[in-house]
User: Fold this.
Amino acid sequence: MNKSIWRAIVEVGFIIFLFYSNLLMGEFERTGAGKGKSLVWAMSDILTGSNFLIAVIAALIGYMLVEFLRKQL
Assistant:
């Protein structure tokens, strides 16, 4: 594969990772629904189709924005 395609895949994947790690941390804060529950419960709560769709759309927008700024600066 082309080097730029691999870079795009890595950057989008990293943004998705950050999205899910933020959701997971939110589950275990004082006001989160996961307080006192297990990690397995929290993972099953955040790994949904709608969360994945949001993560992918946000990652693609974030990647396009960073690429636009990279070319402008």
